[in-house]
Amino acid sequence: MGLPRLTAFDAMLDSVTMETLGETIQYRLGGSSEWLSLAAIVDYSDQTRSIEGVDVVDQNIRVSIMKSSVPAKPSNADRIRLEKRPGSTFKPIKPGSDSSGSDWVFDVKDVMPGA
Amino acid sequence: MPDQELDALAQIIDAFCALAEGYAPLATETFFPDRSPEDGITVEEMPCWVIYAEAYDFDPAMEQGQTRHQALINFERIESSETVGVISRANRAGIAHLIAALHQDRTLGDRLEDTQELNVAPPMENGRSVGGASLQVAIAFYTPRGDHFTIVSS
Asked: Which residue among A64, A85, B13, B70 sits deepest, i.e. has the most Cβ atoms within 10 Å of its Cβ?
């Protein structure tokens, strides 16, 4: 009998990890009016950008969610609200897969209230 | 320690700053006449302006024993909003107010020969939640030859 493959436990480990380490975000699919509560890992780091030679501190938030909770690739019509950035609504930009292939990872951009 | 003696251009940038700060539509905006570029601007400080001399040159005005200075001054407006665009509407409105503020006193109380707004340019790249745009103005003024600390009234 061969050794079990670790990837066979991915689905179980991923969901346990996300539930344990993640935080709850609100996610609304494009075209829907319903906000879903999902577990996500959010990196709230800021980044310094040079705007015509003047350094400016700008958000560089990265969000990671499980593909099992949002199967379709996030689109810029989707909307996100983050616990630690109350009052702002964001949309996903530059969505892609993580290295394991089981999570979506994307940057976020502010959207106008109501948009 | 006493303040370092201000050269003519620093005096002019400070005067522009005071003129803009005193203009009612810009009352809620912060002006930085002497901000180090690496002293990062935070969201709490926006909208704000960083004012700096981009370049300056000199011509002899020999008949008066003076030097005519020409300088390009940049007024860089930094804001944070959902729609930073290439040049955001908020930045365009801010720049329009600034031009009105400068027009109140184009000679800064007879210190300048003239102030002329030249152009507005976007940055190479905006941030995700922050955007900038800069207004460039050209100014001309006189100092005694060899004394760049004293502005001669025009």
From this structure: B13
- Positions of E strands within chain B: 30-32, 48-61, 66-80, 114-121, 130-144
Query: What are the beta bridge partners of residue A25?
Result: A38
Across the interface, which of A49, A111, A115 has its CB nearest the CB of B127? Answer: A49
Of B76, B128, B134, the CB nearest to A59: B128
Chain B residues inside the 8 Å CB shell of A93: 128
Q: Which chain B residues are closer than 8 Å to A109 by Cβ?
A: 128-129
Domain boundaries, chain A: 25-111
User: Which residues from chain A sit within 8 angstroms of residue B41, using beta carbons?
Assistant: 54-57
Please name each of the domains of chain B with its CATH number: 8-144 (3.30.2000.30)
What single DSSP character describes residue A86? T
Global pTM reads 0.82
